[in-house]
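Q: How would the structure tokens look for this protein?
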Amino acid sequence: MFKIKVDKEKCIGCGACEAQCPDNFELDENSKAKVKKAEVGELKCNKDAQEVCPVDAIIIEE
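A: Here is the predicted structure in token form.
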């Protein structure tokens, strides 16, 4: 299992993660990235979202 988190302090709300992986990321009411499903069995597009984040706000742990 992989745990996915967003560092809200780092997040600038650019939406790159949501554009890359709309299945698991969306912007919340404060225009910060929000993870829809924090634990996943496969990374799929979550890794891509982590890579496109300009401020490294997405954290993936095994």
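The mean pLDDT is 97.

The domain at 2-61 is CATH 3.30.70.20 (Alpha-Beta Plaits).

Upvote if useful.
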